[in-house]
């Protein structure tokens, strides 16, 4: 199994959710996150005092998938998240040792 | 017979129901300015000190109201002594005032005048609190207000507005409180912060306003309340001066807001919300002393100059290193000085008094008087406030501890937080906090 994690622009969430559903993903976890990449943050001005705000709002989407679906799923997420502008985010995958469905105790791919 | 009575009555002013009603409404409008100020300031601080900021303004409604009735009105508007303060035993506790007794020379009851002036006395110390955000013990602040209004505000109000007060007799024009309210509060703020010092993290940590919508709400309500503050200060509306003041208040505020925004756009590249709110307040401050003596076009000029200069002045704290947290000095002191001095240029001689400013052929005379008013109140308030702060700081301590300041003054001083961030679904602590804490064992022994 693989854990796919995507840190993307908040306003792309709906597109990504729809694309994942179309792909057949059963469940996902969404967290509000903040961070920056190459674009860094932005500047805000309050009565002449300038503040550099490094961390910009992002959302973090996590999905568990079977190994053979992982590459294709990454492509689906990237396609749905892309706006072509700076700050679109990152997607990565890591191997997962096991997963358990809490209600039934099913393990491995059955738990997805 | 009937005409004889009318003639007799015309000699002395009679109670005017219209003016009395108008002044009661104006008083209520000015009262609203203090909670409005609380929100204006409250939105500008960080989440962790929102309630303290609201409370520092709000407590003034409690303390000053009581002091005003006890002796404040007597000191400010009682019979003059040595041109410095007043005293009338009838005014102590407002005990010897008849229901229909009129304020001397006007058509409104003394009670109405007293309550209108009370609202000015309440908002003035509240204005100071913006400079002290995040770091002052609430008890120390309450004591400061008590001493400050007694030693500074009540006498200064007498100097400026009281019959026999030395600035009043000299001919200094302060229509609605540029000197007595704004310069007074701004100089006091500077005096106190020079004593108590900077917030932990000043110039290092970001201290961004936590809610600009609250700031805008506060500024909007201040603008609204200010019509009572300014238009009411003629104490009636029989001759149209109050109406001119109403118009001037509106146009100067608009001009100041636009000037502040223009400066920001040129200097920093954006039109900010805080700039619009601040510019409006700067305009209101500046037109307060001057609006009764100038024309609407003069008011536009006064507002624009004040908006520009105040926008430039708020940066001075970074240059000189004093932590005027919410720019009380930059907006109220500078705005008050600008407005008071501009009377010396823009007074037309045709509205509030015959005194003419430089631009209307009056020479430098009025400007000189205004300067004396500005700098005497500024110096007295600055020095007296610094001494009061020093005394309180040496005895009970003016500031909360550094740890408490960093963790947030709301919880330390008020045992509350402004917002519940535990999120949807409820926090995990709801059950444990609902159960009262068990009494300490020592107490149990005492009870038994």
From TrEMBL, chain A:
Coiled-coil annotated residue ranges, if any: none
GO cellular component: cytosol
Gene3D superfamilies: 3.30.70.120
Modified residues annotated as O-UMP-tyrosine in this record: 51
Cross-referenced Pfam families: P-II
Keywords: Nucleotide-binding, Phosphoprotein, Transcription, Transcription regulation
Quaternary organization: Homotrimer.
Protein known as: Nitrogen regulatory protein P-II
UniProtKB/TrEMBL annotation, chain B:
Ranges annotated as spanning the membrane: 20-41, 53-77, 108-128, 140-161, 181-200, 212-229, 241-263, 270-291, 297-316, 328-351, 371-392
Pfam families named in the record: Ammonium_transp
InterPro entries referenced in this protein's UniProt entry, alphabetically: Ammonium/urea_transptr, Ammonium_transpt, Ammonium_transpt_CS, NH4_transpt_AmtB-like_dom
Keywords associated with the record: Ammonia transport, Cell membrane, Membrane, Transmembrane, Transmembrane helix, Transport
Every Ammonium transporter AmtB-like domain range: 22-419
Domain of life: Bacteria
One annotated Gene Ontology cellular component of this protein: plasma membrane
Cellular localisation: Cell membrane
Region annotation (Disordered) ranges: 420-448
Membrane topology designation: Multi-pass membrane protein
GO molecular function, one term: ammonium channel activity
NCBIfam families: amt
Family under the similarity heading: Belongs to the ammonia transporter channel (TC 1.A.11.2) family.
Subunit architecture: Homotrimer.
The protein's role, per its UniProt record: Involved in the uptake of ammonium/ammonia (NH(4)(+)/NH(3)).
Protein name: Ammonium transporter
Organism in which the protein naturally occurs: Streptomyces showdoensis
């Amino acid at each position: 199994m693989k854990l796919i994690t995507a840190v993307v622009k908040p306003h792309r969430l709906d597109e990504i959710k729809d694309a994942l559903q179309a792909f057949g993903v059963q469940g996902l976890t969404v967290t509000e996150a903040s961070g920056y990449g190459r674009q860094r943050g932005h500047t805000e001005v309050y009565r002449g005092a300038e503040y550099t705000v490094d961390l910009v709002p992002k959302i973090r989407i996590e999905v568990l998938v079977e190994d053979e679906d992982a590459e294709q799923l990454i492509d689906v997420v990237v396609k749905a998240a892309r706006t072509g502008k700076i700050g679109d985010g990152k997607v990565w995958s890591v191997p997962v040792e096991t997963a358990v469905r809490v209600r039934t105790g099913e393990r491995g791919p059955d738990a997805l | 017979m009937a005409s004889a009575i009318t003639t007799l009555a015309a000699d002395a002013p009679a109670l005017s129901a219209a003016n009395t009603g108008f002044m009661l409404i104006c008083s209520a409008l000015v009262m609203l300015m203090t909670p409005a100020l609380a929100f204006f300031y409250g939105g500008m601080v960080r989440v962790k000190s929102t309630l303290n900021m609201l409370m520092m303004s709000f407590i003034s409604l409690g303390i000053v109201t009581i002091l005003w009735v006890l002796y404040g009105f007597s000191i400010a508007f009682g019979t003059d002594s040595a041109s410095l303060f007043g005293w009338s035993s009838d005014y102590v506790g407002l005990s010897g005032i008849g229901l229909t007794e009129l304020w001397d020379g006007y058509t409104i009851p003394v009670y109405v005048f007293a309550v209108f002036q009370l609202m000015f006395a309440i908002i003035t110390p509240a204005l100071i609190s913006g400079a002290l955000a995040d770091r002052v013990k609430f008890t120390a602040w309450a004591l400061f207000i008590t001493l400050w209004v007694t030693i500074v505000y009540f006498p200064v109000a007498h100097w400026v507005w009281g019959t026999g007060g030395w600035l009043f007799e000299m001919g200094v024009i302060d229509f609605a409180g540029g000197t007595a309210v704004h310069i007074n509060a701004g100089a006091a703020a500077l005096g106190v912060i020079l004593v108590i010092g900077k917030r932990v993290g000043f110039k290092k940590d970001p201290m961004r306003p936590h809610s600009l919508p609250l700031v805008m709400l506060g500024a909007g309500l201040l603008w609204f309340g200010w019509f009572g503050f300014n238009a009411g200060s003629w104490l009636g509306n029989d001759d149209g001066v109050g109406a001119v003041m109403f118009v001037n208040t509106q146009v100067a505020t608009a001009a100041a807001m636009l000037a502040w925004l223009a400066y920001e756009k040129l200097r920093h590249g954006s039109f900010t919300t805080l700039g619009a709110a601040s510019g409006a307040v700067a305009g209101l401050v500046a037109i307060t002393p001057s609006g009764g003596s100038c024309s609407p076009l003069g008011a536009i000029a006064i507002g624009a100059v004040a908006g520009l200069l105040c926008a430039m002045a708020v940066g001075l704290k970074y240059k000189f290193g004093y932590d005027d947290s919410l720019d009380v000095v930059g907006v109220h002191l500078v705005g008050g000085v600008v407005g008071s001095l501009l009377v010396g240029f823009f007074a037309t001689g045709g509205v509030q008094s015959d005194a003419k400013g430089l631009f209307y052929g009056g020479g430098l005379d009025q400007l000189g008087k205004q300067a004396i008013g500005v700098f005497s109140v500024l110096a007295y308030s600055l020095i007296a406030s610094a001494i009061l702060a020093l005394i309180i700081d040496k005895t009970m301590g003016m500031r909360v501890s550094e740890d408490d300041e960093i963790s947030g003054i709301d919880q330390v001083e008020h045992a509350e937080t402004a917002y519940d961030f535990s999120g949807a679904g409820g926090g995990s602590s709801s059950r444990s906090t609902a159960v009262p804490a068990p009494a300490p064992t020592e107490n149990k022994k005492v009870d038994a």
